Amino acid sequence: MSTVVEILGNISSADWLSASLACILLHIIYNVWFGPLAHIPGPFLAKVSSLWIVFQCRYTRRSETLLKQHQKYGNFVRVAPNHISISDPSALEAIYGHKSGFNKGPFYEDKSIEPVLFNTRDVQIHHRKRKYLSPAFSAKNLNEYEPYMAMQIRKLMECFHRRIENSGTVQLDFNEYWDYAFGKPFGFLDKERDHLNLIAIIDARGEVLNALGHLPQILRPIMKYFFLDPFWPNGLRATSNLAAIGTQAYYGRKDQKNSRHDLLSFLFKAKDPESGGPLSEKEIIAESISFIVGGSDTTSSTMTNVVDIVSRSPEVQRQLQSELDQAFPGVMESDWVADFQTANRLPVLNAVLRETMRFKPTSATGLERVTPAGGKIIAGMFIPEGTLVSVPTLNVHHNPAVFVRPDEYDISRWLGSDSSALLDSFYPFSLGPRACIGRNFAWMEMLKTLATVFKLFIVERTRTLGTEVREGFFVKNSECNVVVKPRFGRKDRT
Ligand code: HEM
What we know:
By secondary structure, the chain is an alpha+beta fold. It has one domain: CATH 1.10.630.10. Helices cover about 50% and strands about 10% of the residues. It has 19 helices and twelve strands. A hairpin with a 3-residue loop joins β10 (about 470) and β11. α4 (about 50-60) packs antiparallel against α11, α8 (about 140-165) packs across α9 and α12 crosses α14. The termini are far apart. The model has no long low-confidence stretch (mean pLDDT about 90). The structure holds protoporphyrin IX containing FE.
């Protein structure tokens, strides 16, 4: 023993350094030229280190970059030493489908918080949570939420009318207004401002967690001290701030459990499927924070995309409004909000929402999964067990073999008799056991809101240049400045 210590003691620091460099070099050579994924093409840096994908996320452009990388290298691209991005649509069912055996990858691991439905990697925990949360999204519960949604939409319309009253038209940033309106019961619409700075907090948190998820576990806790790039400490501070705001909101609501029929009121009443008792306070708080982000940022970003695109396309807006005028004829009462049943059967409205989610998906990224034991053949290629894989939604939605002229926004592709075939390659909410639990809720909220807005207002974009976006886990427009003009006088005031 003492001989080993003596030998180690005699090695100089220069030798230690050379040995470490040699190990790193050998590791790189193995990864790039000899490892089991060596035959898969991709940027050289991505084969060497996961820092390549971390940088794409850090600079909020992962999906945009991957779209180009797949155009350059084909259907399989190595995006990290142990991570393959696959853009073949047949990989979707094989990876994300029921019984595929692929589970969520280390990207989702967050040891600092209570696991939630969205991020838990444990199949049993996920099953238990999905069991008690699914009823919240049943058809019956959706019907009960509708009046609450209508109330929020009414408040939003009131805001527009108040601002329009003097000038006849109003300039506003839709990006922010949606955020005020949805899922965040913090009174933003009453105050007409985000007094908690919640929107900036959610954005910073989303961006940092998206990058952090690709770093090795060992580095994640120390990134809050990486002051060389404020992106990291600021984003991680935002994560703690959101937790504090969510916890405070929970305690604010706890004594008025039945004051509103929303998702939080459902969590208060939910029963643990194992014990039959109520959920723990810790679990309700964690899930409700997750709903604040997943349930409102997503719908508001998607509706902003619709407004951005439709406000730049007078012909699409004309088609949409002509359909809405037939379905909801005449001048509406001042408190009118479109009902879901009617909105849901309007072909142009549904085509506009679908085409927007195809063309510019809010969830554009490849969702990381781990290849199960024994490996799997995906889209004709053997993928060894333990390999991380993902299918980027943006690429699937821009696949020219399915969507003719994929880079053109064209609602007519959803209006033809053969359009249902396109649904097989349309996955804005993912699929399988980890598909979005809130997709019906989201569809209802978005159709109701968009039908109401476009029935009542003409919307014109003030920016002529392209729209800038930033991608965290979801893609968001940096702004959506528009001029809003009422289409009719208000019935109770004429
Ligand atoms: C346009 C709106 C929305 C989009 C595009 C969207 C998209 C997605 C996607 C792609 C996933 C899969 C994520 C993954 O595998 O990592 C997901 C999961 C999830 N979404 Fe949504 N979502 C939307 C609205 C909502 C709403 C309104 C809620 C709740 C009210 C919600 C709650 C969730 C939850 C809890 C999960 C995790 C499900 C699980 O793992 O079992 N989402 N969503």
